[in-house]
Amino acid sequence: MASTVLIVDDSLTVRMDLHEAFEEGGFRTVLCANGADALAAFEAEQFDVALFDVLLPDADGVELLRALRAHPGHAGVVALLLSSEAEVSDRLRGLRHGADDYVGKPYDAHAVVARSRELLRRGVEPPAQPSVLVIDDSLTFREELRHLLAGAGYEVLAAASGEEGLRVAAASPPSAIIVDGVLPGIDGATVIRRVRLDATLRNVPCLLLTAADDYATELQILDAGADAFVRKQESLAVVLAKLAAVLRKSTVTPLPPEGPFHGQVKVLLVDPDRGFLDHAADLLREEGYEPVAAPDADDALAMLAVQPAGCVVLAVDGQGDTTAGLELCTRIRSVPGLRDMPVIGLGAGDALLDCLAAGADDYVRRADGPNTLRAHIRAHIRRQQLHEQNRRIRDELVRRELEAAHERAARQVAEARAELVEELEWRNRELEAFSGSVSHDLRSPLQTIISFSELLLEEQTGGEPTDLALRIHRAAQRMNALIDALLQLASANRGQIQRAAVDLTALATDVVDELRQRDPDREVEVTVAPGMRASCDGELVRAVLINLVGNAWKFTGRTASPRIEIGCSPPAFYVRDNGAGFPAERADQLFRPFGRLHDSSDFPGTGIGLTTVQRIVDRHGGRVWAQSEPGRGATFSFTLPDA
């Protein structure tokens, strides 16, 4: 679908001139003669580009721009302002209030179209298929070349004149340009020079077709900036071969245009001599530059603050004050964002050394004429463009090297992680094998020891059992309990957490019932809070409750009226008793393997249970802690957060 442009100008000539240029460029236009029509169009039309004249009979163009930016349906529209160059204040106001660009009158309508296309293309990826622009006034030759290039896999664009070719190239930058040397209007060499001045097209390879075969013509072609030339007397296959060669060599990193060389290069002219200024501005327009006039240093600095320029020309002999221009040059060089911008001094006398000392890059005498000034401007802009391009290429290479370094680091991390995972899996397999060995190979002789010690004790039922037999039996049972605890700890560290909605109240009740069955002679008051639920691995959390409630059962063994409470104080669950307790400052020792705060003869145990509890809670993403005082019981709390 064609893009739509809103043109707001009270001049019928300007409206029709822009209307024809935009229609020729494939745009649909909406024309408004005043501010009221523009405001009505804001509500009735959808458009992609808006052009406002600054001075309207019933409105201010900058105020219309502000209304456009505030309108919810048009906030992202590309906006350009139109006005005369002399009105610097209007240019400043427009750029400060959201204009994408400012076009000074007199203007080139086709340049306005090209700039609008360029602003619309921001952020759009270029096509993958290489395209070739053929500029030739012979329809027969264009079609012959189109057929040849299309057969070779190129997308072909065509133009019958140099001016049309530049417009087509600005609208859709090609991969290469083939241009005839002799054209109606500007010739092929001028087309190439214009291409080399455009930031978007600067790196596009150019082939120039010529009918001449003398050495001087060849030098002129190459001096104009052509990458290669082809004589028309040669076969068209030579065109195809040379095109492939220059495209092969032009594999420069594609970089988006940035800075003051985006679109038409702007040249800021600071000179009170209007006659010289107007003559120089006309010559600069012919060269493809956009002159911007500023009457004094303050306006010049204000302009540079809102819109960069490709070059600054400043008078050092204006109004009888020879120091004003030099001071402006010094001020420009003191601004970080402007210090690399080319500055050319302009004066009547020999002030070259003073200008260079103030920071200027060059000096031109007025007597040498505007043509000399234009040549100096062209040379400095070309040099600055090459410097900018090289800097950006270096920055791009550094960026790509950093990305490559990040990729290498990520790959190394991934490889190291894979090695760690593989090693962890191997260790888990070894641990499982060890657990199996402990469970079977170690238990087998241990069960033999327990069995024979029990036989010895049974044979001595008539008399007192020997101390040695009792020691053997108790040691074997302790070892068996320790193996069970270690296997439980190993099991708590392996496998995936299988979360489900678990009724902790029912789980705690089962654990208490098992304790009562194992120790039916004890009377312990146990309360279990109703409605306790959590998303967790039921088997592992059962081991947590077995250890915590079992410890509470054990450490209340010497309490006159033992009590155990199993409850919930969101977000934590807890097991509380009124047993032996322990010093609060030593609570962290309880969760270490084999960590004990009481003598095993008073409260026997393996010292592994609380370590198992901590591992299980950690694997659920929770934490466990203890509070106690000696002789006043203990409270063990733990959390089981959702996954």
TrEMBL record:
Database matches in Gene3D superfamilies: 1.10.287.130, 3.40.50.2300, Histidine kinase-like ATPase, C-terminal domain
Leader sequence residues: none
Xref: CDD domains: HisKA, REC_OmpR
Modified residues (4-aspartylphosphate): D53, D180
Keywords on record: Coiled coil, Kinase, Phosphoprotein, Transferase, Two-component regulatory system
Keyword Lipid metabolism attributed: no
InterPro entries named in the record: BphY/WalK/GraS-like (IPR050351), CheY-like_superfamily (IPR011006), HATPase_C_sf (IPR036890), HATPase_dom (IPR003594), His_kinase_dom (IPR005467), HisK_dim/P_dom (IPR003661), HisK_dim/P_sf (IPR036097), Sig_transdc_His_kin-like_C (IPR004358)
UniProt-annotated location(s): Cell membrane
Protein's UniProt name: Sensor-like histidine kinase SenX3
